Amino acid sequence: MRGRFLTIEGGEGAGKSTMMERVAAWLESNGRQVVSTREPGGTELAEKLRDILLDKTNTVLSAQAELLLVFASRAQHLAELIRPALQRGDTVLCDRFTDATWAYQGGGRGVASDDIAALEQLVHGDLQPDLTLLLDLPVEVGLRRASRRSESDRFEVESLGFFERVREAYLQRASAFPERFAVIDASGGVDEVWEQVEAVLQGRMPP
Ligand code: Z5A
Fold first, then answer.
1. Which of the 8 DSSP states describes residue 90?
2. Is residue 169 within a helix (H) or strand (E), and if so which, with residue range?
């Protein structure tokens, strides 16, 4: 039996990092060994690819190169960290995974679904998250939160239309895979969001 694989997804400023900490603490308090990680990144090499992806001076990066870098980072992350942890029986909690590629590269950039599906099949056709928490909120609210937090990266300088397409693509993924996704209304305060997340965990991640 492999360990469980949980992912947290959402647009800018949705509160993923904030919920990652609470979810990890909740899982640990239920006796699970938790490996918290993120994408792009999660290993030394994959973090170097993350730096390229987020560096806003890389204005020439094409949508296809971006897609390949995201999957290169993911392949490394899976080989070095995610698969070994799942094989040990640990619970892997990941801030973004391939649903983010469907949302940002597919929805945001307009990359063809066939190309994303082919790379997904190549890199982890055998492995999907067991549970994906989608923190959903209006784009303007998320961008306002994100702008208070840090300097913008290569994605955060995109247009409102880009982020609306990202949100729409995430919601389409959730409708396509209702058994895997839990859509959380992330527009309220941290405790309100946590209440919904905890209810999902209680139902889907029994001790
Ligand atoms: N990307 C991609 O294109 N393709 C892919 O396949 C993958 C990723 C995997 C890096 O992601 C970028 O990579 C990402 C997509 C792209 N785009 N960007 N940018 P990231 O996850 O590292 O970066 P992010 O989306 O910018 O995350 P974020 O802005 O850090 O958002 P967050 O983690 O969801 O939010 P947070 O840090 O928890 O909260 C943001 C602020 O809001 C902070 O000050 C909190 O204290 C506050 N906050 C949090 N929750 C609340 C609530 N409920 N109420 C009020 N305030 C709150």
1. P
2. helix 160-176
66 ligand 1 Cβ < 6 A: no
* Nearest-angstrom CA–CA distance, 150 and 125: 35
pTM for the model stands at 0.97
Q: Is the CB of 107 under 6 A from ligand 1?
A: no
148 lines ligand 1 (CB under 6 A): yes
Q: State if residue 154 touches ligand 1 by the CB under 6 angstroms criterion.
A: no
**143 C-alpha to ligand 1 centroid (Å):** 9
DSSP 200: H
| 5-204 belongs to CATH 3.40.50.300 | yes
Task: Write out the chain's pLDDT in tens, 207 residues.
Answer: 699 999 999 999 999 999 999 999 999 999 999 999 999 999 999 999 999 999 999 999 999 999 999 999 999 999 999 999 999 999 999 999 999 999 999 999 999 999 999 999 999 999 999 999 999 999 999 999 988 877 888 888 889 999 999 999 999 999 999 999 999 999 999 999 999 999 999 999 987
